[in-house]
Recover the amino acids of this structure.
């Protein structure tokens, strides 16, 4: 499922990369895996088939529930009905997956340009 801003924010980048024969690396965790974490916690990822784990960083990931961004997330979502202690964990698997695939694909001496939403880097956490 594409984001609502795909046509304006991502498609032009993808087309530019294609036209200029540049690598275009997807760093997002598949949405279904973040959903699993939201519903069942990190432990549920361990039960995935090995092939599915190719889309994830090495498990278990480091997680700090005390990070201000995760606390802020819980505060913002507290009245929305779907906030639970696993909500920031779902964000953490997104962040860890992005970092993993950036590091996996970064080559010394090469430029790696990464586009992402502000929540992933606003506080450098």
């Amino acid at each position: 499922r594409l984001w609502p801003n795909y046509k304006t924010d991502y498609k032009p980048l993808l087309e530019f990369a294609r036209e200029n024969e540049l690598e275009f690396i997807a760093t997002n965790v598949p949405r279904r895996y973040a959903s699993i974490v939201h519903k069942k916690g990190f432990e549920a990822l361990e039960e995935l088939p090995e092939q599915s784990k190719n889309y994830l960083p090495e498990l278990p990931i480091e997680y700090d529930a005390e990070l201000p961004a995760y606390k802020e997330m819980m505060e913002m979502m507290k009245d929305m009905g779907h906030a639970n202690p696993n909500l920031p964990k779902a964000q953490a698997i997104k962040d860890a997956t992005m970092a993993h695939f950036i590091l996996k694909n970064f080559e010394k001496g090469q430029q790696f340009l990464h586009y992402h939403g502000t929540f992933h880097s606003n506080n450098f956490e």
About this structure: The helical segments are 6-19, 31-40, 68-77, 87-105.
